[in-house]
Amino acid sequence: MILEMKVPSPGESITEVEIAQWLVAEGDYVEKDQPIAEVDSDKATLELPAEESGTITFKAEEGDAVAVGQVVCLIDTEGKPSGDAPVSAPAAPEATSAPVQKEVVQETTYASGSASPAAKKILSEKGIDASAVIGSGRGGRVTKEDAVQAVPSMGTKPADGERENSRKKLSMLRRKVAQRLVAAKNETAMLTTFNEVNMSPIFALRNQYKEEFKEKHNVGLGFMSFFTRAVVRALQLYPDVNSMIDGDYQIKYDFCDISVAVSGPKGLMVPVVRNAENLSFRGVEDEIKRLAIRARDGKITVDEMTGGTFTISNGGVFGSMLSTPIINPPQSGILGMHNIIERPIAVNGNVEIHPMMYLALSYDHRIIDGKESVGFLVAIKEALEDPIALLMDNDVKKALDL
Question: The whole model's pTM is what?
């Protein structure tokens, strides 16, 4: 039986996906539920599992945009693994009076520099040799998209060295991110305000309790739980920051869904910690760990990255000293964390060295005034510099559930 595999819906409002990569080769035998392809939507990269076991035939190429519900491959459920195929005895050659000329049949492959039939046709019309095009498909294959984007050479390479370039189509997710970033710059009145925070109190708390916390809860006591709870407190003090514009209306939220930027195999992803106002330090750390693992393993879903009301981005883990984060629309604010550097500061008239971090708040000035934005960032600074009183209600053991 021939099974038609169609593109399932990755989520609400998504009507099209892109074949990012086939994980198997044409004609391979695949097992049921085996991942056979990665597909990109404008919100996430997802794996496409085989619906049945059998041999596979592609109906779409890497880089093709396909509609939800479209057939992308066929699975012959009567196909067998190559190792199970019967081996026939070689036939005895017939006697002839003349030497037998052995016919050599060259198998068509998609090695580096080869082009698909559709790509060959396009390149021929452009007068471009397929070997001059760097393919982005499996094994260096020149895809239809590569052929469409190819341009004739603009000159010969110099004798004193190589001058090469490569061309790779952006994933649908990356293209969507690019559109959203440009829209955020063009469609919001974005400003950024800065402050700095002395991280010594948090360092002291972590040094004292991190081992006990990890032993009891099986999760580390990181910086993100302190920052998330400080942000929640500030959002409750300055609700305009926890809102967004919808046409001529302002929508305010009585809950805090905090988007947390994490690094995944396909780039930056922003899963959402739901109802962070109800989470303890342990609850925040557990949820961030869960989401980070799902993002790392490529299992994060569209729903888990949709609907945040405010974003925290930690560029400090990559060494960023100071930056102006871009708002994650339709949200109205984003907090940028940066690396922690020991610096001399004035404390009660004396110069002391403390671990310091710069904070940046980018906000939409259409809906948040300067007073609110500065007050919001100061509230975060105050909570981080006095966490026992402002984040733990003067009871560290209870706050950390120890």
Answer: 0.67
